Amino acid sequence: MPIQWREEMCVGNLEIDNYHKYLICLINTVEAAVNCKLGKAVLLSHVNELLNYARDHFAKEEAMQSKHNYEHCLEHKKAHEALIHRLNEIILNLENQKEAKIIKNTEDGLFKVLHDWLINHILNEDMKMKVFLKSEH
Q1: What was the pLDDT predicted at 105?
Q2: Fold category of 12-136 in CATH
Q3: pTM of the predicted model, to two decimals?
């Protein structure tokens, strides 16, 4: 089921909120590629795009946190690293799977990781930034 952007996901910074919205679009694109049975090559292309965008977003978010001496910067960075590590594992796993197993394994693993992590990360970890960002203005 596609992720819907909800107002409670806003952290109060337009740049970060827009990054999160686009991450959600990329996750939904990965899900659509699986649901439409577009095949392994297309799925890997979308997951790699998601990985690259996540790396870029995380680096920018971490730089912003560091610049403003955000108190949870280190734990936030560790959470980002954990997701990047997990995405790399998923990509490696997808690359080594037969085409027929891709759909089942992606639904069982990738969707759960992406949905749970992204939603929980935004609603829990990134919400800590909301208070911090408001105090900076």
Answers
A1: 61
A2: Four Helix Bundle (Hemerythrin (Met), subunit A) (1.20.120)
A3: 0.85
Q: pLDDT tens across 9-62, in order?
A: 898 889 889 999 999 999 999 889 888 888 889 989 999 999 999 999 999 999
Q: Where are the alpha helices (H) located in 1-137, listed in sequence order?
A: 14-35, 40-67, 73-95, 99-105, 111-120, 127-136
| Cβ density class 86-125: b for 16+ within 10 Å, e for less | ebeebbeebeeeeeeebbeebeeebbebbbebbeebbeeb
Q: What is the mean pLDDT of the chain?
A: 84
Q: Which two tokens stand for residue 16?
A: 């970060």
Hey, CA dihedral for 43, 91, 58, 112, is it positive or negative? positive
Give residue limits of the domains in the chain. Answer: 12-136
Residues in contact with 64: Cβ distance below 8 Å, sequence separation at least 6, in sequence order: 13, 15, 16, 70
pLDDT > 70 in the chain, percent: 88
- Which residues, in sequence order, are CB contacts of 129 under 8 Å at separation 6+? 11, 12, 13, 16, 65, 70, 72, 76
Side-chain-facing half-sphere of 124: CA atoms under 13 Å: 9
